[in-house]
Amino acid sequence: MHQHIFNHPQVIQISKPTLMKVRLAENVDDLLILACLSNPLFELLISQIEGSTTTLLIRQQPFIDIEYEQTIVLAEHYDVCRTEGQGVRLYSRMAVAPRLCIEQLRQGIDILVQADKQVFLSCDASKRHELIPLELDLRLLSEPEVLVIAKSILGHTSAFEQSSAMLAIQISEIEQVRRDIREYMRGESGKIHPGVSTELLKLDHLLQNKHQWLLRSYHQSLERPNLSNASNEPTMDIEKLEQKLACYNVLAPSDVTELVNQLLSDEL
Predict the structure, then answer these.
(1) pLDDT above 70 (res 143)
(2) Are 17 and 112 in contact (CB under 8 A)?
(3) What percent of the chain is modeled with pLDDT above 70?
(4) How far apart are CA 51 and CA 56, in angstroms?
(5) Does an H or E element contain 75, and which?
């Protein structure tokens, strides 16, 4: 479960009270976070406990960074108590506005971990995220492949300095995955879990917004190759062509010039 959303597990050994500082990685698009908030942000398993030393196996979503810092400050109470073979997942709380959860993730979440024959974990007092024991996790969701691909494409960062060709590729990717979403929902009609169906519709709307933004950027990149120039400002190449055309007009015989003018008038 969740194999497709987590990265490879990391082995962390803790011998003193430690703060796990959980925050978003840099340059992560909010659209990706918005689409992934229904999934756990990370999963922690207790591999071994020896007195005050414990070995943890941690898997996290790719856009999450976790730093470890020893501390002497202890929590007044702990949210979860775990022993060997048990674990927890960190979720955004339900009924909390997604923008508040994203804002908290950008600021960082502190989780205090201490081992003493058992492992005690306490999440900070933001009340926007919560630690849930694995055996009590009722939010399990096996996502279809099209849903995973859609989230991955939403996570691609876009910038104005990208070339027209790269923007065209991203536009094509979005059009393809939106077509796959429609075909999946049509082919699996009546069989899709309501939560998955809602998630697909939400992602399709977000992809549509990103498609419109990329399409506008693509047209601007064609009309305005250099951001320092106005979109209607002729480029140097066009100016050189106009000068060359004027030279041809001067040097060409009069009958040829009249024939060209007549052809242009016929086309108009």
Answers:
(1) no
(2) yes
(3) 84
(4) 14
(5) none
Query: Distance between CA atoms of 120 and 53, rounded to whole angstroms?
Result: 12
**Whether residue 139 has pLDDT greater than 80:** no
User: When comparing pLDDT for 76 and 230, which is higher?
Assistant: 76
- The pLDDT, as a whole number, for residue 1 is 44
Q: CB atoms < 10 A from the CB of 151, how many?
A: 23
CA distances from 35 to 18, 32, 258 (A): 30, 5, 64
Pairing relationship of beta strands 80-82 and 119-123 according to DSSP bridges: antiparallel
Place of tokens 């703060």: 19
- Residue 113: partners with Cβ closer than 8 Å, 6 or more residues away: 14, 17, 18, 19, 20, 54, 56, 119, 120, 121
Q: What is the largest CA-CA distance in the chain?
A: 101
Tokens of 31: 């659209």
CA dihedral over 244, 248, 250, 251, signed as positive or negative? positive
pLDDT at 197: 80
